Amino acid sequence: MAFHDSKESQNIGSPTVELESQTTSNMNTGVYFKMDDTAKKNLHRMGLLSALAIGIHNVPEGIATNAGSIQNSSVGFSLAFGIGLHNIPEGIAVAAPIYFATGSRWRGIMWCVISAIAEPLGGVIAWLAIGDGMDHISEGILFGLV
Description:
Elements: H1 7-11, E1 16-21, E2 29-34, H2 37-71, H3 73-102, H4 105-116, H5 118-130, H6 136-145
Antiparallel strand pairs: 1-2
């Protein structure tokens, strides 16, 4: 039984839900998502753009974590822990569209890891640029930007 009856829903490239029986018995039914090529391409593009945007977003977080760690290691740990918690839904936002577009869990995880690597990269950039410390005004500006 399909939930798409009109041709309009098929033209916009949206995923459609169909219920199909996996066996001859009616007790074991599953939900399947069928997408046309346009919907898969759009979903894949959305996942890649999310990975790019989150990767760019993660660079200043790495810089801020490094700057916080220079002043006080407990501040750096607190920042890293909080940022790590909020990176979980960001990773899901990257991996889920890629997984549903390609059907490959590894591709979703790969793009999630690629976008997450930007944060330690930002920390390394900060370490190379700042060194062992910075003045309070620069630190305040940096935390204000993040």
